[in-house]
Write a structure and sequence with these properties.
globular, alpha+beta, two-stranded antiparallel sheet, three-stranded antiparallel sheet, single chain
Length: 89
């Protein structure tokens, strides 16, 4: 039997440990550009967030992602996250 280890990551908003596939990664590059990393392999500082509308809105309200990534996060990134959350449902 080959039991594979499931990689866990922590949601920056809720603090819950979840499987990496259940979370979405937001990345800040060295240039300071913030984008959504669907592959999970982009270079840069990453923060994981649960793909849930309430969680995303809470992150926007409390500036959680901006604090973790130490960068300004535009509304377009939050809009894209909300669209991805709608598709997941």
């Amino acid at each position: 039997m080959n039991n594979r280890k499931i990689p866990l990551r922590k949601c920056v908003v809720t603090g819950e440990m979840k499987a990496k596939k259940e979370l979405i990664r937001v990345v800040r590059s060295k240039e300071g550009d913030v984008s959504i990393d669907l592959t999970g392999k982009k270079n840069g500082r990453g923060a994981y967030i649960t793909l849930d509308k309430e969680c995303i809105l809470q992150a926007k309200k409390k500036n959680t992602l901006a604090n973790h990534l130490k960068a300004n996060i535009e509304d377009s990134v939050y809009e894209e996250l909300l669209q991805l959350a709608e598709k997941e449902k």
